[in-house]
Design a protein that fits this description.
2 copies of one chain form a homodimer. Chain A contains 1 helix and 9 strands. By secondary structure, chain A is mainly β. Chain A has one domain: YaeB-like (Elongation Factor Tu (Ef-tu), domain 3), CATH 2.40.30.70. In chain A, the strands form 2 sheets. In chain A, strands 2-3-8-7-4-9 form a 6-stranded antiparallel beta barrel. A two-stranded antiparallel ribbon of chain A has the order 5-6. At the A-B interface, strand 1, strand 4, strand 6, strand 7 and strand 9 of A face strand 1, strand 4, strand 6, strand 7 and strand 9 of B.
Chain lengths: ~160, ~160
């Protein structure tokens, strides 16, 4: 058993899954903030030089008591293996989003392209680094052609 | 307090940090495997269509009892805020690597470009999706110009 401690809180305009953009690519221009708890603020040194950052966070409002291994993801009408999706309801419900970093003031980060619910517990921040994170790929499975035009989430993975 | 349960184990040629490639970009052609525990194998459906996948894993051999918020990362000679680095010793030691998926047989994934220690606990698998994960960035902080020529890790973050 592994234990994590939130290092901050993510703020956004989104109070519930329904209507929240699916992925930062559907959230262009949506502003939010990250409040890093004071005791971790020293770790933000040098981060301002990065244009984008990865946020790792806890999907605290996803249904994870007995997560389904087969899900119908937001962007499809077909049931898929959960590890072939970015759905929030997963065995370890860790979210991953690359957001645009606007500025840092002490322990507060202003961010943009936010697809995360307001009040979400922050687990980690990493710099987005082209040489580490950008790879040319020819195949991206079911997400290549069969996706719906949907860009906003609904309530399908919310806690009952 | 948040609890995680490993969903599998990552296998690689690397038994210790020293000599392990820093990031998949330094590990081109290095083969490894992911063993997903039987009870989670159903979640792998549809994953084979993706050329690359994100592995989220637990840095189980990094020093995290009292993680430093200022670290000297593998690729630099200067002390940096830990959140501006991808160093393993961090408040929530979750690793993130995009690896090449070669094939899936039942609950076993053969992978390539592996920068992960053998025996590392797997936390999550997500598809690598260009429209979600690739962003043009003009600035990537200290990693732009000042990096060393180092491509392999040493023992600096290992448990004492």
């Amino acid at each position: 058993m592994i234990k994590l401690t939130p290092i901050g809180i993510i703020h956004s305009p989104f109070r519930q899954a329904t209507g929240t953009p699916v992925q930062p690519s559907a959230a262009k221009g949506v502003e939010g903030a990250v409040e890093v708890f004071e005791e971790y603020a020293a770790g933000l040194k040098d981060l301002a030089g990065f244009e984008r950052i990865w946020l790792l966070y806890w999907f605290d409002r996803a249904e994870v008591e007995a997560p389904a291994l087969i899900v119908k993801p937001y962007l499809d009408n077909t049931r898929r293996g959960v590890f072939a999706t970015r759905a929030p309801a997963r065995p370890n419900p860790i979210g991953l989003s690359s957001v645009h970093l606007l500025r840092i003031q002490r322990n507060k980060l202003d961010i943009c392209d936010v697809d995360i619910l307001d009040g979400t517990p922050l687990l980690d921040i990493k710099p987005y680094v082209p040489q580490f994170d950008i790879f040319r790929v020819a195949r991206s499975g079911w997400l290549e052609g069969t996706v719906t035009a949907r860009r906003l989430a609904d309530s399908r993975f919310e806690k009952k």
